[in-house]
Write a structure and sequence with these properties.
four-stranded parallel beta sheet; alpha/beta; globular; 323 residues; 10 helices; Dna Ligase, domain 1
């Protein structure tokens, strides 16, 4: 018997529906359940062929458990080693190399020195930074947000340099991104599962949270194809098997705004019934697919094209918008 587990926190609708959907398919030798952990011993398997991770970004104990499970052969979705290394600024940097349009973006050192550091720790950092060059590159209005993390926490819209310095002084030890504002005509949030299944959802981030999936954007077939191509390219290079990509359309060009969401919102009350049913069904089918090809004791993780090409000394391949 190959077990598929789902590791989750406070959410309820998706994890329960996912396990029920897998089990309802009655695939011989396949069963699904919430992950149960009663001890974690180094180098010992956990008993699951596949685990879908929905919570380890917030619980370091779970992240350590998943790395050990992966080392012992569990196919963890998403790869906990890559997820531990990934962050939004790197993703934007990678996008510039594979021909995916992204807003102009810079990374900023934290306003407050990290613990166990002092002025001498920053001998290589210019003071002050080239604020004039930074503001010229980004422009105003601009957005400032943490380079790691999500959920619309600590996100600021800034109209001028004065507002920037005021808000940046409140960010403490957070490392922030400063990013060009993309004034969009349309906006989409796109599920991507298995680096091959895409669901493009009209999304209005300016609405209150429970109404963000209520919009009347109506993309052409050509635009849908282009957005799908971008979503697949991003996830194939990052190696994420469960992710969302947010695309803002400006002058007909889809800009990838946020595409580091490896535990994306899948609650029925927020994404709506049709989107919920799609993600439950697609995730169930993909988890079963991974369980059927799982090989005990081997590396069953997914690695993205960026890592694979690096190990083979191959260059990145420019995308459709590459200059």
């Amino acid at each position: 018997m190959k077990k598929i587990g789902i590791l989750f926190g406070q959410e309820r609708s998706f994890p329960m529906a996912f396990a029920e959907r897998v089990n309802s398919k009655n695939i011989p030798g396949i069963t699904a359940e919430p992950v149960r952990i009663d001890k974690v011993v180094q180098g010992e398997p956990c008993g699951y062929a596949v685990i879908i991770d929905r919570i380890s970004q917030d619980v370091p104990f779970y992240r350590a458990f998943l790395k050990n499970a992966a080392l012992c052969g569990t196919a963890v979705i998403n790869n906990p080693f890559w997820w531990s290394a990934d962050e939004k600024f790197f993703n934007n940097c990678l996008a510039t190399k594979i021909g995916v349009p992204v807003p102009n973006t810079v990374i900023l050192p934290s306003r407050v020195q990290p613990p166990d550091t002092n002025d001498q720790s920053f001998s290589n950092l210019a003071f002050p930074l080239d604020w004039e060059g930074i503001f010229k590159y980004i422009g105003f209005p601009a957005y400032m947000k943490p380079f790691a993390g999500g959920g619309w926490k600590h996100v600021y819209k800034l109209r001028n340099a004065e507002e920037f310095f005021q808000k940046h002084s409140e960010t403490g030890e957070l490392v922030m991104l400063l990013q060009e504002e993309i004034v969009f005509d349309e906006y989409y949030r796109c599920y991507c599962i298995g680096r091959k299944h895409v669901r493009i959802m009209p999304y209005e981030p300016r609405n209150v949270h429970h109404l963000r999936y209520s919009s009347d954007f109506n993309p052409s077939a050509e635009r849908l194809q282009l957005m799908e191509q971008i979503v697949l390219r991003i996830n194939q290079y990052l190696g994420y098997d469960f992710n969302t990509v947010e695309l803002a359309i400006r002058n007909g060009v889809p800009y990838a705004i946020d595409f580091c969401n490896p535990a994306p919102d899948a609650e029925k009350s927020s994404v709506g019934e049709e989107n919920f049913n799609w993600v439950v069904e697609t995730a169930a089918n993909y988890a079963i697919e991974r369980a059927l090809v799982h090989q005990d004791g081997l590396d069953n993780l997914t690695w993205g094209e960026y890592v694979k090409r690096s190990t083979m000394k191959e260059s990145l391949v420019p995308g459709p918008f590459a200059k």
